[in-house]
Amino acid sequence: MQHTQQREQVERISWARAMIFAVGFFFISALLIGQVPTYIFNQMTAASLAGFEQGTLALGVTCLVGFVIIQVVVLLFDPKPLVPPIIFSGLGALLAIAGLAIILWAAVTGNQYFPHADTVWNPVLNGKVLWFQPDAVDLVMIGVAILVVGVALVFYSVLARNEQRNPDRRDPGTTPAIRAMIAVGGTMLFAFMIFYTFVNNQQLASKIYPQCPYAVDPTHGCPGPITGLFIVNTIFNTFLGIAILCTLGAFALRLHYLMRPVRKRTMSGLYMVGIFLAQTGVIFLLLWFVV
Fold first, then answer.
1. Which of 215, 279, 260, 226 is nearest to 108 (CA)?
2. Is 137 helix (H, G, I), strand (E, B) or coil?
3. Position 106 in a domain
């Protein structure tokens, strides 16, 4: 009788894990039911196909990024991992550097979108490059996706190496690292919202770079490619990116600790979620490629 009671207590789900599941399913349901279909409808009924192509490509790449991260988690935390975590750390560092380089190159040179309106290569059906409309590919989005995959590989490979050194699989709760990331991310996000609400980008750009506040103009001493508005937007985007990265890192680390005691029962479900994301991503990529 005593063994039966202990077994039942082990199988119960904690309130923290239940809250994580509830909040996660709520936001996923809100996105799938409300935001994503509305976004697709608006882009499909717009006057230009460029927004629809950018949107379908972004959704497809996002789904594939989720699939890759889930597969990395499954490979790293398998009871008998086939690939050492150090390989994922090295690969993740290379991907993160490559993604950051693409973002910086596209932003500094002004080549965020491809193809340009003046780019022509084997046009078909009024397209510029094949049948693709101008600005069909957002290179900054591609760079961000590669950067996220690289950071995720480094993050989970470090956790996997720590678990190999320490066999303890208990839930340590909200660790100081999680608290620090929540505090930093929340504070930076709050500060970003205040500045974005009360500070005018164009006025700040004029104060930072009076000779070249908004656009490149060689006749007025602004050869480019750096402008005051570019500096302001870069600072804001970097600030917001760090805040989001810290917040997501805290959530991912807490979820990792919560799922660690029940990992054997959840790995199969996690793998199926990854397969679903891969299929959805391929569908969006096919829409982007065909349309």
1. 226
2. strand
3. yes
Residues 6+ apart with CB under 8 A from 282: 60, 64
Does any domain span residue 235? yes
Contact status, residue 135 vs residue 163, Cβ threshold 8 Å: no
* Per-residue confidence band for 96, with pLDDT thresholds at 50, 70 and 90: very high
User: Side chain identity at 147, as an amino acid letter?
Assistant: L
User: Distances from the Cα of 201 to the Cαs of 78, 95, 110, 198, 228, in angstroms?
Assistant: 48, 32, 19, 10, 9
Pairwise pLDDT comparison (102 vs 114), residue with the higher score: 102
Residues 6 or more apart in contact with residue 43 via CB below 8 angstroms: 51, 52, 55, 56
Average pLDDT of the residues in 2-24: 56
- Which residue, 140, 120, 127, is CA-closest to 50? 127
pLDDT at 209: 76
Establish if 124 belongs to a structural domain.
yes
Residue 115 is part of which domain span? Answer: 46-290
At 114, give phi and psi (nearest 5°).
Answer: -145, 140
Q: Which helix (H) or strand (E) holds 114?
A: strand 113-114
Rounded CA gap, 280 and 30, in Å?
Answer: 17
26: in domain = no
Question: Is the C-alpha dihedral spanning 2, 6, 8, 12 positive or negative?
Answer: positive
Q: How many domains does the chain contain in total?
A: 1
Tally the residues of the chain: 291
Please calculate the CA angle 73-75-78 and round it to the nearest 5 degrees: 95
